[in-house]
Structures are given as structure tokens and as C-alpha cells.
Amino acid sequence: MKQKIAALFNQVHGRAPAVITRAPGRIEFIGNHTDYNGGTVLGAAIDRGVWVAVAPRTDGLRVFYSDMMGEKVTLAASVTAKQTGETSWINYPLGVLAALPAFQLKAPEGFDYVAISDLPTGAGLSSSAAIELASGLAFLALTGQQPDRETLVKIGKHAENNFVGVPCGILDQGVSGFGQKAHLVFIDCRGPRFDTVPLPESASFWIFNTHTKHALVDGLYAARHRECMEAAKALGVSLLVEATPEQVEAAKSRLSPDAFKRAKHVVDEIARVAQAVAALEKGDLDAVGHLLTASHRSSQHLFENSTPELDFLVDQLSATLNVHGARLTGGGFGGAVMALTSPAFGDAQAQAVADAYAKKFGARPDILHMRTGDGAEQL
Ligand code: ADP
Ligand code: MG
User: Fold this and answer.
1) Domain contains 375
2) Disulfide-capable partner of 239 in 38, 95, 101, 121 (CB 3.0 to 4.6 Å)?
């Protein structure tokens, strides 16, 4: 991909790039809806991502090009307005440029820019965080600035929250920034504090993207957020992370049935993240797999953010040889299921799951196979 983006840059801008960077997409491994409850989460940086190439210009113009659009867009460095329509992808690099001063960093004036990707967009793999971090690193290298990883992560999140306008948590950028091959990224969302946990390099991820999306997904997400905050209040804590599973059980009669289920999911899920870290440290992928599937069952029955499509995939995968575990990944209410497998799980088995799914639901899920990969870097 490095040669590919250098060649494309030459074709588009008629010269060589000065800086090439790459940042990976990510998978939410375990820790479902724990972030805004102050909890913990494990994510995997994957071996797919976004590459960005830049070179400085002296005329104050910023010339953007992406393999997604196939057309150059030229903006004066003074243009800081949010883009709409076809060019709205530029809001990701523009958002990063707009974020830099908030971190006492300087944005480059004029430059030529190219982004390419081998990450499907909108598949729950966070291509948005990947383009933010790759762009951030590129702009900073262009101006000779070297921030630490945590600052880079925060710049990406700032861009997505404040400029693009998506209220995502720290998972996407945190994993893209702190990812490491043959590791998972552990995030304590309260710091935030970042760490890595070894994962055998042989571990494989399979994503089954259903392309289904609940019509009311935004409203449902907001409802879950509200229910969690109400449950915390009823438990006398500011965030659910401060309550233990025992405290939630003891409060069952005081909580509404829904508040109890949401709270139980969150505190159990936070406990599962810790159990997963412990199992990973022992290299016990079967134990990790059981935790993944338990996480899904909790989403299905307690948090109620699963769907019949996702449940079906988890049922099929759980019954398939060489699958350690499977769960919905991301916000839920549609989207994708992730399976953690041994290398012996292959395309034939994945296609058999897709066949069964197609027979029941009349459409095939997209299948993506990936491994862990390294975090954002300059190449
Ligand atoms: P996800 O992060 O799950 O992939 P989002 O909707 O958050 O989905 O982000 C996808 C958006 O990120 C795309 O619509 C596009 O604007 C931007 N993006 C991602 N990859 C690229 C790319 N290679 N070139 C230009 N824009 C990209
Ligand atoms: Mg995104």
C-alpha cells in the first residue's frame, strides 16, 4: 500500500509525497456500551486501515484527493467551514486541522493530500478514526511536530466529536492509536488510560456484516444511555462503573425491570472485560471465547441491543468448530457480528454460516477475515 499511495500521489499531484502515514481500523472486542458508563473495553487494531500521503505547498492551498471520491478538491487554508455533500469526507482531515490549536499544536497551511483505504466504510470497523489518526500524524510530521500517542488519539476524537459531529467514545481512536500486532488494546474510559494485552498472533477475526440497521437506532442508543444514567442514580453512584454486580443484584427490587437489566449488563460486562484480560494473560482463548459469547447473550437478553439476525449468526458460529466465541460488535441494533477463531477456521466454514443466514433472511452477510495489526504510524 505504501508504493500504491506514493504512485497515486504522483499521478494526482505530479510529484512525490513528503510524508506517508497509516492508521488501522478496529474491532470492539469486548466491553459493550461500557464506555459512557465509565467502564473498560478491549479493542483490536486490525491489519486494514487508511493510508495518507502529504507534501507541503507554498501557495496556501490545500488540495485533497481520496480513492473514495476520485476527484481533487482545492480549498484555501483560510477555509474552515464544514463541507457538505460529495466533499463531506474532507471534514475528517479538516476536523483534525481544526483540532490542532486546542492541543497547542500548529496546523500546516498549504499541502497536497491523498488518502487510500482497504477498510470498508460504515462496516463498524471505524474507518473514520483511521482517517483521523493517519491525517493527524501526517499533518504533524509535515510541520515537524511529534506529539505522544495519547495526544494524537485525543486530536482524532476531538475532530470527530466537535467538527464532524459524531459523539463517539474513546474506543475508536484509542485502539487505532495504541494498537499493536498480536495484542489487544485495553482502555479504562475514565482516565482514559490505555494499555495493551497480548493476543496470540494466530488468533483470527471474522466479521459478518449484516448490513441491517434498526430504523430507530439513534433513539434506541439515546434510550439506553438514559436508562444507564437513571439506573446509576437509583443505585446512588454517578456512573455504573462504581457499582458492583452484587450491589446491582441487591438493588433489584428497587429498580425498574429495565433499569435492572441495563445495569446488570453493564456491571457484568465490565467484570467480563477484566476476566478476558486475565484469560488472555494465561493464553486461554477458549475461556476468552466463552466470555465473548456471554457478552452477546447479555446484549441479547439484558441490554436488548441485539437483533434476530445477529443472534442467528452467534448461534451458528458458536456451534461451528474452531470458533472460540462470537458476539455482536459495536452499538448493536443491527450491524455486525465478530467471531474469534483459531487459524483452522476457514472460508468454507464462514461461507456455510453465510449460507444458513441467507436461507433464513434472504440476503448474505459480507464476510471479512482479519488479524491484529499495528497502531497509527509514519511509514
Ligand atoms: P466507520 O467509521 O464505521 O467506517 P463512519 O460513518 O464513522 O463509519 O465513517 C465513514 C466515513 O469516513 C466515510 O463516509 C468518509 O467520509 C470517511 N472516510 C473513511 N475512509 C475514507 C477514505 N479512504 N477516504 C475518504 N474518506 C474516508
Ligand atoms: Mg466511525
Assistant:
1) no
2) 38
Q: Does the residue 266 lie in any domain?
A: yes
Please say whether the beta carbons of 63 and 114 come within 8 A.
no
Which whole-number Å values give the CA distances from 214 to 32, 140, 210, 309, 334, in the listed order? 17, 39, 11, 11, 6
Give the ligand at the shortest distance from the Cα of 53. 1
Over residues 12-28, the pLDDT tens digits come to: 999 999 999 999 999 99
Do 113 and 52 touch, CB atoms closer than 8 A? yes
Report pLDDT digits (tens) over 152-185.
999 999 999 999 998 788 999 999 999 999 999 9
- Name the grid cell of 86: 460529495
- Contact 68 CB / ligand 1 (< 6 Å): yes
Which helix (H) or strand (E) segment holds residue 336: the answer is strand 334-341
pLDDT for 213 beyond 90: no
- Same-domain check for residues 241 and 172: no
The pLDDT of residue 218 is 81
Q: Which three cell numbers stand for residue 223?
A: 434510550
Task: Show the domain range for 239.
Answer: 204-370
Q: Is the CB of 212 under 6 A from ligand 1?
A: no
Say whether both 81 and 65 belong to one domain: yes
Ligand 1, atom nearest to 68 Cα: 24
Q: 83: which DSSP letter?
A: P
Q: Are residues 211 and 188 in the same domain?
A: no
How confident is residue 192, by pLDDT bands cut at 50, 70 and 90? very high
Of all helices (H) and strands (E), which one includes residue 178? Answer: helix 171-178
Measured N-to-C along each axis, helices 91-99 and 127-142 cross at an angle, to the nearest 10 degrees, of 50
Q: Which residues contact 243 (CB under 8 A, 6 or more apart)?
A: 232, 235, 237, 263, 267
131 CB less than 6 Å from ligand 1? yes
Interatomic CA distance for residues 342 and 164, integer angstroms: 38
Question: Based on the structure, what is the number of domains in the chain?
Answer: 2
> Please, are residues 53 and 114 in contact by the beta-carbon 8 Å criterion?
yes
Amino acid symbol at 74: T
Q: Please say if 315 is a catalytic residue.
A: no
Which H/E stretch holds residue 262? helix 257-281
Q: Which atom of ligand 1 is nearest to the CA of 330?
A: 3
